[in-house]
Amino acid sequence: MSEFPPCPKCKSPFTYDSGMFLTCPECGHEWTAEEATVEETVSDDTMVVKDSNGAILQDGDSVVVIKDLPVKGYSKSIKAGTKVKNIRLVEGDHNIDCKVDGFGSMALKSIFVKKA
After folding, report:
1. CB distance 116 to 64 below 8 Å
2. Which regions in the chain score pLDDT beneath 70?
3. Rounded to two decimals, what is the model's pTM?
4. How far is it, in rounded angstroms, from Cα 92 to Cα 105?
5. What pLDDT does residue 1 have?
6. In the chain, what percentage of residues exceed pLDDT 70?
7. Are strands 104-108 and 77-78 parallel, antiparallel or unpaired?
8. Which of 2, 43, 58, 59 is 20–30 Å from 84 (CA)?
């Protein structure tokens, strides 16, 4: 068994040191030892969702939409710059549940928002 931490991406136990990085032979992911210690402090049952700039989002945060988003069933779209308050993080592709003024409840992808 390896004395290195498992891969943070695929959880493979077969990681090895390749100089400056720790490397996973199964998925090819590389990371530094410092990143490994930071990721160990976050428990496995905690979901980590990042915005378009890489900032970690939490339940109750406010976010700003960064591009116009078309909405099925509506003739108008959510405009860039729209502020959404009190988000809730969920599992899945659209990982933010929220209420958008003028549209109601909906799910957004975190790649289309930035933390306010």
Report:
1. yes
2. 1-2, 35-45
3. 0.61
4. 16
5. 47
6. 88
7. unpaired
8. 43
